[in-house]
Amino acid sequence: MLADSLHHYTNINTLALILKNKTIRFNRLDHVDDITEGESFTQLKLEQFFFVSCWTYDHEESLPQWNMYTTDMAGVRITLPKRMFNYRPLVLPHTIRHVTKGSLISPLPFEKIFGDSYFILPMFISENHFARKVEYVSDFVQRKNQAIQTGGIDSEWRIADPTGIAALKSLDWAFQKEYRFVLFIFPSSPIPKDDNFFTQFSEQFPSIAKTSLYYGKGPDFDFFDVEISQTALDRINITTGPLCTEGDFLIVESLLEKYVSGGKVEKSKFARTIRKPRRR
Q1: With contact defined as beta carbons under 8 Å apart, do 175 and 64 qualify?
Q2: What is the tally of structural domains in the chain?
Q3: HSE of 82 in the Cβ direction (CA atoms, 13 Å)?
């Protein structure tokens, strides 16, 4: 078991795609299983703008999560280092290098931050804003909306700790002990290609962002994939589900042999202790 690690319950097909593509998928907040997460935003429909990857910091296997996130408990639990993404110095185009000093470390390259139709607010430059434990509270709806101050479309707006309010959940979900990575993504126009990049973007984006927030219209996609580092993948541990077959186990072994070096696979501690119930 990796000491500083996180776990994700999923199906073998998803594991295969993660290993082949070397990416983790961030899903839009209005597509996660807890419907109240999206419905809790009443000031602004921010669920259209948040994209999350959900893990657990609980090192003990969880029967509820085996049941919720794998098909018939025949999936896998993926274990990776907490620092799993491909953090590297952010290489800026020469047109905007003058606006910052020093080296910025980012899990995304510049061309993934500035897409042709979107812009990712670079709060992930500070890791504690990109990744955090979910906070489970009884007043999560109130706290989310108190952090948002808005008026008309022409007035000043303020959203305090955006990724923090994207990691507030009902106490009903506390059993998950969730650790969450968060991206805050806005629609945007294509970035200028000339030397006026920073000036033009600075002038255009605030208006685009405010209009998008006002009308609750996020970027035109449901998920966003982020690259994992090969070093993290080579330290992967896989636990096969309680009801996996020997064939499932062999498939997982083959996937690790093909895509990583040093990965490990083991059977669930619940193997041979659970059966599918017969129902009348």
Answers
A1: yes
A2: 1
A3: 16
SS3 of 87, please? coil
How many C-alpha atoms does 164 have within 13 Å on its Cβ side?
Answer: 12
> pLDDT by residue (tens digit) across 57-76?
999 999 999 999 999 999 99
Q: What's the whole-model pTM score?
A: 0.91
Work out the widest C-alpha separation in the chain, in whole angstroms: 71
In a domain, 236, yes or no: yes
Distance CA 106, CA 123 (A): 10
Q: Is residue 134 part of a domain?
A: yes
Q: Which amino acid is at 151?
A: G
Does residue 278 lie within any of the structural domains? Answer: no
In a domain, 108, yes or no: yes
Residue 117, both tokens: 């139709």
Please write the tens of the pLDDT for every residue from 21-55: 999 999 999 999 999 998 898 888 899 999 999 99
Q: Which domain holds residue 160?
A: 5-267
